Amino acid sequence: MNIESSKPLREFNSFGFDISAEYFVSVHNTNELAEALEWSKKKNISVLILGGGSNTVLTRNVDGLVIHIAIDGYNELPVADENYANLNVGAGVNWHQLVIKTLSKKLFGLENLAMIPGSAGAAPIQNIGAYGSEIKEVITSVEVLDKTTSELSVINNSDCAFGYRHSIFKTNAGSNYVVTAINLKLCRLDNPRIEYQALRDVLNQQGIENPTSQQVFNSVSEIRRTKLPDPTQLGNAGSFFKNPVIDRHQLDTLKQTYYKLPHFEQPDGTFKLPAAWLIEQAGWKGHRAGPVGVHSKQALVLVNHGGGNGQQIAILAEQVRNDIQQKFGIALEREPVIY
Ligand SMILES: Cc1cc2nc3c(=O)[nH]c(=O)nc-3n(C[C@H](O)[C@H](O)[C@H](O)COP(=O)(O)OP(=O)(O)OC[C@H]3O[C@@H](n4cnc5c(N)ncnc54)[C@H](O)[C@@H]3O)c2cc1C
To answer: How far apart (Å, rounded) are the C-alpha atoms in residues 237 and 15?
Structure first.
């Protein structure tokens, strides 16, 4: 275990902020993780767990120890049903590389989640989702280490409290866990999900009616390349706000003023609104506040044009949030973690 001090974190946060950690260590297995936690306890310093840093806004230099989860591993486990495969994946595995690898092995179910940056271990934290799929549909359990006791345990899917960009790991009840591995159940039958309209539109344009999972992967990747800024070129953390959910009464009231308001009915009778539409309507798309701003092509993405910092992003996010509250009476919820 190699603990470094005054470690630059530029390559460990997708906004590309020039900040540093007082102490930093990459851990490659659960023993190293337990050792690093023990070390922090002896020094009486705080701990920040980081995967790829693509859903974290670092607003200041980090006091204490950053533990970068670099636990590798990809194992297919024996399974009774020949139509499925069970996989055990280390928390430090790069998510997109995992999607590519499973497809190459003809294991299906992750194709709609292509090109989401970050680590496999962070995927259950906010129940990553895109293009009609969420990780909760294929995750069977999450392996964790308790930060206080260093005990290992396994949390079954039904106990993860998965919701829209939410899980137990974002609550007090789960905040003490470090994810060390995830267990997935993938399908050997090539039967991808294509309910998501934007995905269907792209497939239709290509004349593909019954796509393979590889074709879905290709289409999702293509949409994402055109719609979202590449964090290696323009620092960002993807969607900055969740899509708000409102009831019918609120929808009817809003539609009196905004008759074009797009809305998607949910199974429970509520309505999901595209936060990007609200932000764009409020005039924020392309807005610049010095080195940071709202992306010119996708209003849901806040960006660092270069030389910006996390505090500037946090202030801009708050300004957008307040404005949306004032104009639409809707409280936008942040997606990334502000530290
Ligand atoms: C361009 C872009 C596009 C994106 N698109 C999507 C999208 O389509 N859908 C989506 O859901 N998200 C999206 N995201 C957000 C982000 O990629 C995901 O949330 C991803 O899962 C974060 O992984 P990470 O390893 O970078 O997490 P980090 O930013 O390192 O960590 C995020 C949070 O999880 C905690 N954490 C990380 N690893 C662990 C662990 N092993 N155990 C316990 N806690 C941990 C951290 O402490 C932090 O609180 C996008 C981001 C970008 C930059």
So the answer is: 6
Whether residues 316 and 240 share a domain: the answer is yes
Query: Which residue range forms the structural domain that includes residue 32?
Result: 4-69
**Residue among 137, 143, 165, 321 flagged as catalytic:** 165
Sheet containing 245-246: order of strands? 245-246, 271-272, 264-265
Same domain, yes or no: 89 and 177: yes
Q: Residue 311 belongs to a domain with what CATH number? A: 3.90.78.10
- Cβ–Cβ < 8 Å for 244, 273: yes
* Same domain flag for 83 and 177: yes
Domain count, the chain: 3
Please work out whether the CB of residue 202 comes within 6 Å of at least one atom of ligand 1.
no
Q: Are residues 107 and 62 in the same domain?
A: no
pLDDT tens for 263-296 read 999 999 999 999 999 999 999 999 999 999 999 9
Mutation choice for ligand 1 from 48, 125, 127, CB with most ligand atoms inside 8 A: 125
CB burial of 73-92 (b: ≥16 within 10 Å; e: otherwise) equals: beeeeeeeeeeebbbbbbbb
Binned at pLDDT 50, 70 and 90, residue 78 comes out as confident
Strands 139-146 and 133-134: unpaired
pTM for this entry: 0.97
Residue 160 has pLDDT above 80, yes or no: yes
CA distance 229 to 303: 9
